[in-house]
Write a structure and sequence with these properties.
This protein has helices spanning about 5-15, 20-30, 40-50, 60-70, 80-85, 95-110, and strands at about 1-5, 35-40, 75, 110-115, 125-129. It has about 130 residues and is an alpha/beta fold. Strands 3-2-1-4-5 form a five-stranded parallel β-sheet, sandwiched between helices.
Length: about 130
Amino acid sequence: MNLLLDAHCLVWFRIGNSCLSTVVREAMESDQNRLVVSIASFWELSIKESLGRFRCEGGVDGIYREWIQDGVAELLPIEWRHLSILGDLPWIHRDPFDRLLVAQARREDLTLATNDQNIHRYPELKTIW
């Protein structure tokens, strides 16, 4: 499975939070799956960190090193082909980072791992939780 990880999946996996579903945890641990993280997720975590709403050992830099620099997951940049479909998405969700993840998952044919129930309502989007 080609899996796009929402930011909370990265964090919860790292800290061993039981809020991360068993299905997603096992998918993240499986060598059979390709893991992808959007640069938008690091952007979102960086903003939360600067506002004092996110703290973890090593911060966002540490998470980036562990997932991307260590080769555990691939970094998905934001490209025009992702932005070009944002206007066509229904307004199920108002969060710009989540809307971008939806657009990227649809355009790149990725399954989005997220606990956000609003995201699961998007048509033509594969999700797991």
